[in-house]
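Thread: Newbie trying to understand structure tokens

Hi all, I'm a second-year student working on a class project, and my supervisor (Dr. K.) asked me to get a predicted structure for one chain before our next meeting. I've only ever worked with sequences, so writing a 3D structure as a token string is new to me. If someone could post the tokens and maybe explain what I'm looking at, I'd be very grateful. Here's the chain:
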Amino acid sequence: MTAYDPQNIFAKILRGELPCEKIYEDEATIVIMDIMPRTTGHALVIPKAPSRNVLDIAPADLAACVATVQRIAKAGMKAFGADGMTVQHFVEGAGGQVVFHTHWHVLPRFEGVALRPHTGEMAPADEIRAAADKLRAALSGA
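---
Reply by user tm_fold:
Sure, no problem. This is what the structure looks like when written as tokens:
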């Protein structure tokens, strides 16, 4: 496995070098909106500690991430009236990983509605912000 690269986009976001639409943060994790969402409400759960993927993440950081994934999945169900959730974690390039900092995709799903393809095009900022506001409201119990 290749070594962790501290110049990846999520490491830069964690250091405050790049902007993000933050949903939630605790001592071990941060949740941001995916800027190329495959469905409305597509969020990313990211550990603050550096790791490449599930193969090298520290067990405590893994546990923190899974707890945050559950919290965001519950909020996504509520915020978007979803029928279900898809949680994805890709490992290495052959497994579909594109950004080599551990992260989970948390995607609200609806019966009969396929995920949008990953085109590499960013969604309009107002759409991302609106979905973020719904998730934040669900997390706060509003």
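A couple of things are worth pointing out once you decode it. The chain is about 30% helix and 20% strand. The longest strand covers residues 104-109. Feel free to ask follow-ups in this thread.
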